[in-house]
From TrEMBL:
Alphabetical list of Gene3D superfamilies matching this protein: Aspartate Aminotransferase, domain 1, Type I PLP-dependent aspartate aminotransferase-like (Major domain)
PTM-bearing positions, type N6-(pyridoxal phosphate)lysine: K244
Superkingdom of origin organism: Bacteria
Binding-site residues for N(2)-acetyl-L-ornithine, renumbered to this chain: R133, S272
Organism lineage: Bacteria, Pseudomonadati, Pseudomonadota, Betaproteobacteria, Neisseriales
Protein name, entry field: Acetylornithine aminotransferase
UniProt organism field: Snodgrassella communis
Gene symbol of the encoding locus: argD
Catalysis: reaction(s): N(2)-acetyl-L-ornithine + 2-oxoglutarate = N-acetyl-L-glutamate 5-semialdehyde + L-glutamate
Signal peptide from the UniProt entry: none
CDD domains: OAT_like
Amino acid sequence: MHNYLTPNFNFAPMFPEHGQGSRVWDKNGQEYIDLAGGIAVNALGHCHPILIEALTAQAHKLWHISNIYTTQPAQELAQRLVKDTFAEQVFFCNSGAEANEAAFKLARKYARDHFAGTDKHEIIACVNGFHGRTLFTVSVGGQSKYSDDFAPLPGGIRHIPFNDVATLDAAVNDKTCAVVIEPIQGESGVLPANAEFLQAARKACDRHQALLIFDEVQTGMGRTGKLFAHQYYDVQPDIVSSAKALGCGIPIGAMLTTAKVGSSFTPGSHGSTFGGNPLACAVGCAAFDIINTPETMQNVLLQGEKLQAGLQELGTAMGVFSLVRGQGLLLGCVMSDEYKGRAAQLMQLALQHGVLVLVAGQNVLRLAPSLLLTDADLQAGLQRLKAAITAFVHN
């Protein structure tokens, strides 16, 4: 098939046609176990009937009305997000990048409103972070491979090593308007933050009257066994970004914040044409009501333990993984020294053996399956991955 899209993606040699739960079929009828979850988006698998029902019902009512008005689905989803988090206000947009863009703009606007004339505009971020693909968010993300080609980049951004408390303390100063951290660095290798690092960030922000932003685009909405990963720690942020699983495949992003901070988004200061779209918010409400339950959270924790144990067993038996890390159903398998830098090759072989997985950099195989992953799909996925690994080591 001829590709009419721009060449910034290397598409896999498989054309997916339909999916159900944790299984996907291509146009030839070949079945795959999906342990990639659309890069942590398909939190409830493919074509969940309750989400289909919510989308269909809203489609018969209202698709779009513009942000001159608010709608019941938008208010209801915002209410859910506020009720079970630190937040008091929500800004809706269309993606994680837009949620982070809003967060960074709000942090600078808040500093300008409250500390005028002090040059308080600097954002402290982490090396190897990932916050999106807009020019601002790719600049805040600490990976030059994503930003070098688009220079000159926005200024006022500093990067520190992830989980380095001493460097963090030295970097944050009175010119800092915000510190942004992923509770688990996803794109750079599924690296969990230390509790000490997150707590030190909160204290440093308090000392210098800066805002603490948690990027939970990938870790949010139950991925780690709690609604948001930062809820495992005694650390309250000022802003949290969310997307991916928020709509379970329908494009939506959200920035959560307090009323004090959110008040700086005065009328006209920021916006989004499709943000708060009734279709997306209706699906988001239905998804939230399934995800934010003890049953789903318990499944994430139990299946996460089983999947991690199975991957560790495979890694030890086959000598391919030196470490399996992560939390809940966001896991990273670090390639052993013998196979260092070959994660993408293993991902391709996994596809050939009927299982969808991801990479996080050149050296980590990443898995982010449905939060409703069943024992049958988990075991089938591990069996197919074992066959792929067997072919990999004998290649």
